[in-house]
Amino acid sequence: MQRLLSIEWYKIRYYKTFWILLGLFVLGMFCLNYLVFGMNVKVKTQAGEQNADLILGHPYSYPDIWHTVSFMSGYLLFLPGLIIITVMTNEYTYKTHRQNIIDGWTRLQFIGVKLIWALILAVISTVVALVVVLWLGALGTSPFGFTKFAFLGYFFLEALSYMSIALLLGLLLKRAGLAIALFFLYIMILKNAIAYLIDHLTSSNAGNYLPLKSADALLPFPFIKDLAKAIMQPPPPVTTLIVVSVVYLGLFVWAVIGIFQKSDL
Amino acid sequence: MNVLSVQQLTKRYGSIIALDGVSFDVPQGSIFGILGPNGSGKTTTLGIVTDVLKATHGNYQYFGSAPTAQHRQKIGTLLETPNFYHYLSAVENLRISATIKGKGLEDIPQVLQRVNLFERKNSAFSTFSLGMKQRLAIAAALLGSPEVLILDEPTNGLDPVGITEIRELIKSLRQEGKTIIMASHLLDEVEKVCTHMVVLKKGKVITEGKVNDILAQGDSVEVGAAGQPGLASCLRSYPGVKKVEELPTGHVQAFFEEKEVPMGKLNAYCFSQGITLDFLAPKRKSLETRFLELTEENKTTYAKAPQH
Hints:
The complex is a heterodimer.
Chain A: H1 2-12, H2 16-47, H3 49-56, H4 64-74, H5 78-94, H6 96-102, H7 107-139, H8 150-173, H9 176-202, H10 213-216, H11 225-231, H12 238-262
Chain B: E1 2-13, E2 16-27, E3 31-35, H1 42-49, E4 57-62, H2 69-73, E5 75-78, H3 90-101, H4 108-114, H5 130-142, E6 148-152, H6 160-175, E7 179-184, H7 187-193, E8 196-201, E9 204-210, H8 211-216, E10 220-224, H9 231-236, E11 241-246, E12 252-256, H10 263-272, E13 279-283, H11 287-304
Parallel strand pairs in B: 3-7, 3-8, 5-6, 6-7
Antiparallel strand pairs in B: 1-2, 1-4, 8-9, 10-12, 10-13, 11-12
Helix pairs in contact in B: 4-5
């Protein structure tokens, strides 16, 4: 296990693209969250604290900050997804997936360590989100508390789902450009469009059960909560969403392992 | 003891049959050539025995037991093209190979020296010429001093000096007692380097065995007896002679049905017929002639097959 990881480390430690993407992600996490935090402050100063509290709630105070930061950070998960796609499709581009097997890795070792990559990036994303919560939380006045900490757990599940679908796309399409295009198209447009269509046609909230959408739905829109409750369909129960997300995750992992074990390289 | 034994390997891509029931054994200590024109199934065969491709049917063993990843760790392999991370240096790439093989890093400088790449060890792979890439791939195959090497077109992309260097390297590896399995479409490469070979065509084995035996089949002798007419007719009357040809040099070439040509007896026979030979040399067929013959023979059998 340690040897598997050290080999992956040798592969990326001098790979500039990886470090740039990772740096952009961390920077983006701080900037995006701070930007929205700043907007929030601005609204409060302009509309008056009482009015703002009435509409916005307290998105950057404990305990709601766990929810707000997790929700906002979800918009940046495409970056670690890009890293996963690059790491996977690089092997195809350089044909090093063949060489690794030829040199004596089993196919399970090769693809297993890529799944560990997905896990590591999900953990990194979650840790960065935690740091952002602690930072922005410290700027506020409310005391620290673990209430609603579960939202960070949902974010981890969301991140893991994004990483595993990115890995699956990289594995299936083999070419970085194609995999990235389809990944972006799905997470930014198709996912929401199809969900909307399903909701509309079935007059239900079944669109929430699409891949990735189920994990997204664990983190509903955190601002203007009362208004949102009034105009939006209530999301499915949290337990159902977790189960559906985990089942999808299992399917992705199973597909990734199965495809790589059986196919010609 | 066979290093590698292959039985009835078949590989289909849809309706295309890339390999059709290929079987052969690689004896320990041999330099085993897999010879065939482009598209005959050489790389497909090697791809299957390195677990890069999955066979449709058939199986293979290393040292008499079912293949495992541990076997691959102990085999140095160059398959088709050099596969390395373009953004990493030669040393960094070899570090990855060595770690996967479970070998130490102390071999790296030595293998780079052996293929004359030591001075470029810190250059990125992407800056290498085709020949340097090929040599780095051979260096990677040499890591950990494996007992068995699989080399697919090892002289691909090399200049004449590089080709000679690699051939010398292969010969010196053989002297170290290593077994080398080498695919090539270059006939004279196999002839110069290999001890055993299998000839493939369109995914089928045409012939297999020791290179000398395969080449010896249908031997001939070039004979000269200056100023003495009747040499040709004398040879025609010798038992076992299939055909006699007069060469532009004045010499005569006699083709025998048997593989072993009795040179001494032939000389004595000519002398008894009143002809003193001043030139007598066995002519081994070049592999090229033999190869064309083999593939021709194969064509004839195709032609004889009933048409549907």
